[in-house]
From TrEMBL, chain A:
GO terms for molecular function: succinate dehydrogenase (quinone) activity. GO terms for cellular component: membrane. This is succinate dehydrogenase. It comes from Halosegnis marinus. It is found in: Membrane. The active site is at 281 (proton acceptor). Keywords: Electron transport, FAD, Flavoprotein, Membrane, Oxidoreductase, Transport. Residues 482-611 form the Fumarate reductase/succinate dehydrogenase flavoprotein-like C-terminal domain. It comes from the Archaea. InterPro entries: FAD-dep_OxRdtase_2_FAD-bd (IPR003953), FAD/NAD-bd_sf (IPR036188), FRD_SDH_FAD_BS (IPR003952), Fum_R/Succ_DH_flav-like_C_sf (IPR037099), Fum_Rdtase/Succ_DH_flav-like_C (IPR015939), SdhA/FrdA/AprA (IPR030664), Succ_DH/fumarate_Rdtase_cat_sf (IPR027477). Belongs to the FAD-dependent oxidoreductase 2 family. FRD/SDH subfamily.
From TrEMBL, chain B:
Pfam families: Fer2_3 (PF13085), Fer4_8 (PF13183). It comes from the Archaea. Residues 29-63 form a coiled coil. Its cofactor is [2Fe-2S] cluster; [3Fe-4S] cluster; [4Fe-4S] cluster. GO terms for molecular function: 2 iron, 2 sulfur cluster binding; 4 iron, 4 sulfur cluster binding; metal ion binding; oxidoreductase activity. Residues 16-28 have a biased composition (Low complexity). Keywords: 2Fe-2S, 4Fe-4S, Coiled coil, Iron, Iron-sulfur, Metal-binding, Oxidoreductase. This is Succinate dehydrogenase/fumarate reductase iron-sulfur subunit. The lineage of its organism: Archaea, Methanobacteriati, Methanobacteriota, Stenosarchaea group, Halobacteria.
Length: 611, 303
């Protein structure tokens, strides 16, 4: 058994920042990650980091833009914390040597992004995430922080109290991918989940293959609610053949969207008369799909994004990476031709419910980054707000887990914050676990409430049994189930949603869950068994997909990224509240909590969102 | 469903219980048989679909993939497996490998993640050259536009863990040996930035693009023969910091001392193989030569 004060699960932006913070606070910290840190998906982020750094800008403006962008589903204390901490964290990266793009006076460059009232997106070419990831990993190396790379965390060691708010997390169980050994990690201070996105629940996504929602699924089964899971961001500019992301920076620099009739449809068709291409992502995604659905798409699938008029010099200076992506993955020369783009799954606004210190309702269990929902993005994330989220809340989770007094959180977590419960949601199948006694579908945390060592040992034993079962029995390959799940989500839980489709998706997910009862690992080897890893990941995707779909079915209004055919209005009277879905012994329990619109000095009044 | 038997007290109850258990046991057995049948059916169906996809494809490409697993008796001896894969325009080597894995053999093992040439995990030896699987179009490997065979092997000059996965530890050790982190001397306070000129950022720009894929190290003849040679990636990392004007003079000298060691820059024989394979187009050889020049200017030391 390995023992550390703080265990960080995941080696991307949030995980690295959390580890550095915990280390600064004097804790013995270790990062346990299924990919070597520099392989993390943070490296694919292109756009930039929103931070109010300049004269004429102010964190309060950033907070206002973010609140508006969230369609008033963000929590003010979280958003204000994000906007207050971001400048310091961004300059911290500069001090660590991050190669930001520069102005003539040598200061870091900023550019306009969608939904922002000031050009406050701080960037490094069109590869900001790559530089952020490498810069932070360099600092981890400098500090000598222990990294267990290619260790796949498959289970949390959580006590088994009936009420999740009484539970404690004492560690996690990981599979050493290289040797096949199961290893227990005990954490005296806390476990921080920083496992990133879950885009692999969809088949057209900008996400890496490794983004399988492992953290959310584990936390969910340990009793932590998933907050606002229905809010999935579809990015308007992804390459049609692969889902590779074309940064919002292209539109930020002045890129133009055209339909097949050569119309600049964002303006000419009235989707966003003021902001055009720089309206927020949900608005642009819907506009593109509407064009395609009404027959003005190209090859019935995509629209054009044109940056030729920006000129070679500016493109090469600020968007060079985009030229390479368009060339390598779509065979298009962005200097000579417009690039084909369509919406693709990009980011999950919902996730593990946390407060502004990264804490979940299970004590000792933290989450930060995309896997978490502290609720800064609400129903729609503004471009350039994911990277500040990583560093701000990664750092806060790290400091808190290492013992720093962060003050009392204003955001309440767990079932005791519930304001109402959903009792009569019309679901076509009963969601949640199946009733076959199989360790792989065991509900909730560990089996015991005894001392920490026993809890960790018990979790290790549970995981060992699960792996042995998967390895020894005959069964079907997870890949078919994963493909069917991705198809169902893309078909029915996409940019446009309707009740019937969401119900079909739930049925399809249920079928995947049933077939998963017969899944087996064909590769008998213990060495680097990716068959086993992908099989466990597929189970996580099923759980995550179900929470997304259940949340989407329940919320019968139109807010941010969540569009419903039957409900074309934002319904503040009934729906100004957070969706919470909790596993509750394998039977998803749906309840709601209040949105906090009260900020430090003022309350944010919901307004019509227009761009 | 549960087949558990509860404790019973009377004889009568016991007899009943045995009967019930037998019935439950049989139904469990039958259920298991049924499941087995369903599983076999599902697996047959999957194989049939794969076969059909290959038969109906206008064109297929034959992957010849290196296989090795030290643990599994039938795979202990390295060999090549052939997988016919339906070819479509735009297909990358990684796509083809994933198709083969998902349709023929789920034990086929390789690293991959981002699919867009930033994570650096799928550097492979494809048709005799180090390339990223995700960035290599199958069509580009074709002779006269018709791809027939694609030969995929693990990166040369690295220890093979299994199939296409190589041990990266040595590569990471070399990277870390050059102190690959910014070392500030006078960090400004609070929100004040360190200034860096556009020109200086431009100078280090290419060097900061390294994704640690290891292709350069694998292609380098010198690294192949000298395990202690820092190698192109690590030297490039040193260049990235040595040339950054934000680090002071003393540190630059310290960095030059590191790369000037016996197994440092002077080992490079300017063969350009690293530059040729770099998927991020980093002029590695140039960077190594630039550091040699700096070293000569500062403090000539030959090994």
């Amino acid at each position: 058994m390995h023992e550390h004060d703080v265990i960080v699960v995941g080696g991307g932006g949030a995980g690295l920042r959390a580890a550095i913070a915990a280390h600064e606070e004097g804790a013995d910290v270790a990062i346990v990650t299924k990919l070597h840190p520099v392989r993390s998906h943070t490296g694919a982020a292109e756009g930039g980091i929103n931070a109010a750094l300049r004269d004429g800008d102010d964190w309060t403006d950033h907070a206002y833009d973010t609140m508006k962008g969230s369609d008033y589903l963000g929590d003010a204390p979280a958003i204000e914390t994000l906007c207050q901490d971001s400048p310091g964290e961004t300059i911290q990266l500069e001090h660590w040597g991050m190669p930001f793009s520069r102005e003539d006076d040598g200061r870091v460059s900023q550019r306009p992004f969608g939904g922002l009232s000031f050009p406050r997106t701080t960037y490094a070419g069109a590869e900001t995430g790559h530089h952020l990831l490498h810069t932070m990993y360099e600092q981890v190396v400098k500090r000598g922080i222990t990294v267990y790379d290619e260790y796949y965390v498959a289970n949390l060691a959580v006590t088994d109290h009936p009420d999740p708010e009484d539970r404690e997390c004492h560690g996690c169980i990981a599979y050493d991918i290289k040797s096949g050994d199961l290893t227990a990690f005990k954490a005296t201070g806390g476990v921080i989940l920083a496992t990133g996105g879950d885009g692999q629940a969809f088949d057209h996504t900008t996400n890496a293959v490794a983004n399988t929602g492992d953290g959310p699924a584990m936390a969910y089964r340990a009793g932590v609610p998933m907050e606002d899971p229905e809010f999935v961001q579809f990015h308007p500019t992804t390459l049609p053949s692969t889902g590779v992301l074309i940064s919002e920076g292209v539109r930020g620099e002045g890129g133009i969207l055209y339909n097949s009739e050569g119309e600049r449809f964002m303006f000419e068709r009235g989707y966003a008369n003021n902001d055009g291409e720089l309206a927020s992502r949900d608005v642009v995604s819907r506009a593109e799909l509407t064009e395609v659905n009404e027959g003005r798409g190209i090859e019935d699938e995509y629209v054009y994004l044109d940056m030729r008029h920006l000129g070679e010099e500016r493109i090469v200076d600020r968007l060079e990476n985009i030229l390479h992506l368009a060339e390598d993955f779509e065979g298009v020369d962005g200097l000579e031709e417009p690039m084909p783009v369509k919406p693709g799954q990009h980011y999950h606004m919902g996730g593990i419910e946390t407060n502004e210190n990264g804490e979940t309702c299970v004590s000792g269990l933290y989450a930060a980054g995309e896997c978490a929902c502290v609720s800064v993005h609400g129903s729609n994330r503004l471009g350039g707000n994911a990277l500040p989220e990583l560093i701000v809340f990664g750092a806060r989770a790290g400091y808190h887990a290492a013992g720093r007094d962060m003050g009392e959180a204003q955001i309440q977590t767990g079932p005791s914050a519930a304001i109402e419960h959903e009792t009569d949601l019309d679901t076509p199948v009963s969601p949640g676990a199946l009733d076959r006694p199989d360790p792989d579908v065991a509900a909730d945390g560990g089996a015991v409430t005894a001392d920490p060592d026993a809890v960790v040992e018990s979790a290790l034993e549970t995981e060992r049994e699960r792996v042995e079962t998967l390895m020894e029995r005959d069964g079907i390959n997870h890949a078919e189930i994963r493909a069917d799940l991705q198809d169902a989500m893309t078909q029915w839980v996409n940019v446009f949603r309707e009740k019937e489709g969401l119900q079909k998706a739930l049925e399809a997910i249920r079928e995947c869950r049933e077939r998963y009862q017969n899944v087996a690992v064909a590769d008998p080897s213990r060495t680097f068994n990716t068959d086993l890893i992908h099989t466990i990941e597929t189970r996580n995707l099923i759980d995550v997909a179900e929470t997304i779909t259940l949340g989407a079915l329940a919320r019968d209004e139109f807010r941010g990224a969540h569009w419903r055919a039957e409900h074309q209005e934002r319904d503040d009277e009934h729906w100004l509240k957070h969706t919470m879905i909790a596993w509750n012994d394998g039977s998803p329990d749906l309840y709601y909590t209040d949105v906090i619109l009260e900020g430090q000095d003022k309350a944010y009044e919901p307004k019509i969102r227009s761009y | 469903m549960s087949t558990g038997i509860t404790e019973t007290e009377t004889e009568e109850e016991q007899t009943e219980a045995v009967g019930a258990a037998r019935a439950a046991g049989e139904s469990a057995y039958q259920q298991a048989r049924m499941e087995k049948k369903e599983i076999d059916e599902a697996n047959r169906e999957a194989r049939r679909q794969a076969r059909e996809a290959v038969e109906n494809a206008d064109r297929t490409v034959e992957l010849k993939v290196f296989r090795y697993d030290p643990e599994v008796p039938e795979k202990e001896e390295p060999r090549f497996d052939s997988f016919p894969v339906p070819f479509s325009k735009g297909m990358t080597v990684l796509d083809a490998l994933m198709w083969a894995r998902d349709h023929y053999d789920s034990s086929l093992t390789f690293r991959h993640s981002c699919r867009q040439a930033v994570c650096g995990s799928d550097a492979l030896f494809v048709n005799g050259k180090q390339r990223l699987g995700c960035k290599t179009q199958v069509a580009d490997l074709a002779e006269q536009g018709v791809p027939s065979t694609v030969r995929i092997e693990p990166l040369p000059h690295a220890e093979v863990v299994k199939d296409l996965v190589v041990d990266m530890e040595h590569f990471y050790d070399q990277m870390e040996s050059v102190e690959p982190y910014f070392q500030d001397e006078d960090t400004p306070d609070g929100l004040n930035e360190q200034r860096q000129s556009r020109e200086n950022r431009e100078k280090i720009k290419m060097s900061t693009r390294c994704i640690w894929c290891g292709a350069c190290m694998s292609s380098c003849n010198i690294a192949a023969g000298d395990n202690q040679y820092l190698g192109p990636a690590a030297i490039n990392k040193a260049y990235r910091f040595a040339m950054d004007e934000r680090e002071g003079e003393d540190l630059t000298e310290h960095r030059l001392n590191i790369i000037e060691q016996e197994h440092g820059v002077w080992r490079c024989q300017t063969q350009f193989s690293c530059t040729e394979v770099c998927p991020k187009d980093i002029p590695l050889t140039e960077h190594i030569q630039a550091l040699k020049r700096e070293a000569v200017k500062k403090n000539l030391k030959f090994w």
